[in-house]
Amino acid sequence: MSQIIEVTARQGDPAETSADTRIIGLFEGVESGIEPVDKLVASGEVKASYKSSGVAHAHGKRFLAVGLGKVEDFTTERARVSGAVGASAAAALGAKSISWISPTEGDVAATAGAIVEGTLLKAYKFDAYKSKDDDDESSGIEQLEIVADDDLTDAVTAAAIGANAVNAARDLQNQPSNVATPSYLADRAAAIAAETGNIEFDIYDRQWIENKGMGAFAAVAQGTIEEPRLIVMRYNGAPDSDAPTLGFVGKAVTFDTGGISLKPSGKMEEMKFDMSGGAAVLEATGAIAKLGLPINLISIVPSTENMPSGSAIKPGDIVTAYNGKTIEIDNTDAEGRLILADALTYANELGADRLVNLATLTGAIIVALGSTYAGLFSNDDDWAAQVEAAADSTGELGHRLPLHPEFAELIKGKYADITNAPAARKGSSITAAEFLKNFVGETPWTHIDIAGTAWDLGRPYVGTGASGFGVRLLIELARKHGQT
Ligand code: BES
Ligand code: MN
Ligand code: ZN
Q1: Is the minimum distance from the CB of 186 to ligand 1 under 6 angstroms?
Q2: What is the pLDDT, as a whole number, of residue 133?
């Protein structure tokens, strides 16, 4: 809902800018060469320590100094945070256009991209439902220019596409569940396809899901009068390539009440965010298509509400998944794995060779890893390492947790092949992953549990509320995949 910031890269004299505010990153003990700023540093009025900022005025211009800390401690993540520090300081000053002199330490293109990301992510707000005050005229930063010796156009443009996709995912997350229904997400997929012009999509309804034999997905959807949707998007950016086709799958439960195994009411409103994995997959797919990355991709988003009702599934019910396995539904609140089961089987059937799924799957992952790491689970070390590397480079960190036959043992069913919720709560994020593993066959697959990171991430550039976690990770994974 926040306005799009126009982002450009420029080579040449930093002083020749039309921006109302120039931002200069300061490393500790290194002169910036911008006299008014260096004077303030010398007098101690402005510090170069990481996350600090200060303002100087000279020659009718406004200079905003942003502390980058020590050169040897500088990372892309620090550049992202510094972009956010600059954005909030500039916005507080009423700046409309900012010109960042890109720091020359390290990977210049990566640093510039991270500054763009930090700025755009920090500037995001969701105020669609707040009545406007008459004197509320400030609409924030409208333009961002990155100035450097090198031509950083590609890096800066790509970073802006990625950050805008994250913000679009945050919009989907933030919409309440009475607006962001499964059909709303399907409409968004159609809109993304129309915007990019190079995505094919199919949208399936309840009747199709039932007729197809997706008994696990249909079981969750049977409790709600809201129509479920299975959203399939295909992007063929490398039609002649025989490289593996990527398959992205995202959980999109637009509201998770727990069903008959009803959740407690405290914080239940946060369960509108239970579609965060699906939102990330939709928007990442759009960004990948906009960037024209040379890869082939199938993205699948199963979407439904999880409601208690006269038609809802009940604990003990047994259903047959699309791959023929029977599932005992012992807890109707373990619904995410049910809809993902059939979506993963379908992704495999449609020809995905490398699977990644994103899901707000278990409360236990929040206990284990907080909001610092998402949980990674995989049946393939190489594929897991690629996902982990992408996560590292975008700052959407993932920490791998193990699978083990003893956990697979725990999800064996009493009356059916498997149960969706073992009685023992032992390793419950892992047993959830073991459940999903039953539906990926031999395909290399990585499951990312984002229950702790999809909102209230707490990073300086996202803070509280929806984070759009995973969007940049998926784009980066696709970008790297296209280089091999
Ligand atoms: N959507 C929840 C997981 C969740 C909880 C995400 C809190 C974010 C914050 C998921 O559908 C769920 O309810 N999982 C249960 C599984 C259990 C019943 C086996 C859980 O984690 O408690
Ligand atoms: Mn649930
Ligand atoms: Zn859920």
Answers
A1: no
A2: 72
